[in-house]
Amino acid sequence: MALTFVSAIAGPSPAQTRASRPASSYAQSIGVPLATIIVFGDQYNGGDELYDVKITVAEVVRGEKAWQMVKSAGDANMPLSPGMEYLLARVKFEFAARVRPEHYSYTLDPSQFSAMSAATTPYAAAALATAVKPELRATLRTGESAQGWVAFLVPRGDHTPLMMFREDVGSVIHQGDASFFKLYNENPSGSARTKPS
To answer: Buried (b) or exposed (e) across 131-151, using 16+ Cβ within 10 A?
Structure first.
């Protein structure tokens, strides 16, 4: 059983304060990297190893443009029911060990990313017969990065969807809470498609 100690004098911890706020208030904007740490633990390899990770949503495409990309990826990809649309996020993932020698690689795949409403109601991943290329899928060693698309289904009326990253590799842990990203342009006059400068 894990124990958490909170000082009544010091006030709430940053994690508690963050937990009491909506995810959209601290979700990372398009084009802005989010830095986090992934910890690999193995008692036979000398204990924990820390790896720095940077995740950036580089571009978001939705609606008709996203459907054209999905359709171009493969004829077996199907149009959606009314009221839903494809949302594609191009994500860059950077992975680097903090110490040498390093012993681990990181297997990255689209299932580690999920879309949700601003109220954190989960949305389904897009079950594509053929993925939009390049797909965000790689095995990374220290100093390597990968960039590719992840696909989601979102309601047409949701103009402020979020994406969450959670690592999913056995004993690996991610320091802090889940990482959240905005899948929309915060500039109301801007388009849904945003490229990094």
So the answer is: bbeebbebebebeeebebbbb
